[in-house]
Model the fold of this input.
Amino acid sequence: MISEKENYSIRKAVKRFYQLVSLERKEIGFVYFYAIISGFILLSLPLGIQAITNLLFGATVSTSLIVLIGVVVLGVLFTGILQVAQMRVIERIQQRIFTRLTFAYAYRIPKISLISIDDYYLPELVNRFFDTANLQKGFSKLLLDFPAASIQILFGLILLCFYHPVFIVFALIVCSLVYMIFYFTSAKGFKTSMVESDYKYDVAHWLEEVSRAIKTFKFHQHNELHLEKTDKLVSGYLSSRTSHFMVLILQYRVLIIFKVLITAAMLIIGSYLFIEQQINLGQFIASEIIIITILNSIEKLIVNLEVVYDVLTALEKLNKVLDKPQDESADLVLNQNIPKKLGVSIKANDLSFAYPNKRPIIKNVNFEIKEGEKVCITGLEGTGKSTLLKLLAGIYPDFSGNILFNGLAIKMVPKKILYQNIATLFADDELFSGTLLENITIGNKNVNFNDLDLVCKIVGLEEFITGQQQGYQLHLDPQGKKQSYNTVQKILLARCLVNKPSLLLVEDTWGGIEPSIRKQIISYLTNENQQFTLLVVTNDEDFISKCNKKLYLDNEIFKTSTI
Ligand SMILES: Nc1ncnc2c1ncn2[C@@H]1O[C@H](COP(=O)(O)OP(=O)(O)OP(=O)(O)O)[C@@H](O)[C@H]1O
Done:
């Protein structure tokens, strides 16, 4: 927890923002087009009012007066129509942001290199997806308010310069002040916003942990650990939020001072120019309306800075998952060496591996396994049996030495081919929320129901399935919550077998299964007629006795022996 706080760079965040903007270039072009047109129309209003004022001094209802009033009213109507068009574009952008991010997450999550997230709890990391809503809302607010406000400022200043040269000085002061407010406060504003968001996720993570381990906390609620930790995290959140708020307040204060000064200066200058008859009354009123419009637009920009921070922060957070390194994909495709439905021969040469910042777990391991051999991995607790299995599954590619499958280095085998031919069952594997069929086949459309029934019979699921009204369509809860532990293990094993792998890498998690079914599973897995190669982590003597070979792992020793 509170692991993320790092050096946040607004430059990197702005770069990401531009990447997003460039994806929506065309639509944003439309938004600006609408903003320019409506900016023109809005500014024509003071000009129209100026002309109407001058005409009114004539105290007659002339045709020009009626036409002018008509033009001004039409201007207001047309601006409204443009705003609706703008809203449609923004809705489309919002929908695309959601769709694009959702698929980016769904596509990339299974490809994330597992070692890169060794220090994270992935479901917690994926909470960042909720920042999609902040991005959608913030991005559209920026698109609606920013272009309109910036164009109004620009046009307003240009127009003012035509009234009197003194307004040019005003334009320069406005531009440099807006720039300075952005320049001096944005980096701090962004950093405080990121830290605030980090704390928000830490709080959410802690609440999720309490929920995940609800039974533990239920029985220990009198110790109040759940409240103490929450208190600590919420304090962190509140102080980081206050720091962020202070930046926003500072920006707003500067704005108020700026507004007061400009309003006073402009009224004085305007009145002076009018008295000196350098501008007439119509021009005076029009110039004051333009100045008020400009000030309102500047206020909009400053107030929206909060949204800018929200958008930049949301983008950074969303990319926390998307930036994680992906599994490397080997270029060399020599899949003829890894035949489907046949066993795989395995050779390990001087294999060593250490988890990041840990001492080596696997040290100079050498062994050879022939195609179709059934091999058990045994040894003391924590000696690296599961780790060895994971290395063979290609999950951790950063080992030294070599692993050869059918004589081909594992690193040269494209992940797709590797994963299609290997089936794994690790002790920490889980079911997901979906039907029994989905949990067994994981969407493999080539599985036929005869094979499925056969596999379910072997693992002892037959009775369970026939006892369900919905059969294979039975809905399973996340982690198989409402099923017995042994049923979950049987489903996980069925998942391995149904794809007819060439290599089966499994941990013996069936200790509690009734003896007759356990025996049936062991005989099936170790049957010489089965073409797959089997590596099973077990310390069960019966299972070991049925295997052809034993790999023994001790802290300093690695032994292979034939059984
Ligand atoms: N993802 C990981 N990141 C860091 N260290 C890990 C990770 N997984 C395992 N370890 C460490 O590696 C060592 C070997 O763990 P491993 O699970 O491979 O041993 P094992 O022989 O299968 O243990 P057991 O018999 O208790 O299941 C342990 O000290 C463990 O703490």
Q: What stands out?
A: The longest helix spans residues 225-275.
